[in-house]
Input
Amino acid sequence: MLMAHPAVLRDLIEQYEALVALDASEADSARGRQRLEDVAYTLCVSTGTRDIDAALIAARYQLPGARPQDDSLLSGS
Output
């Protein structure tokens, strides 16, 4: 599987978190909702996942400084 560059993943995570903080999904703006959906979709595609929660975990796990031996978030324990 191709892996996205950590800088791309970091940027996508930051964009997603900023849009969530602005509550883009609840905003009156169709443009804001669409942007949130686009970033979530891109994160899912970039990490090979199907939902945003899994995509965020996988993206953070791939960033430099992630502890590869600590997979507790991925295993659910």
The mean pLDDT is 84. Helices lie at 6-21, 30-47, 52-62, 72-75.
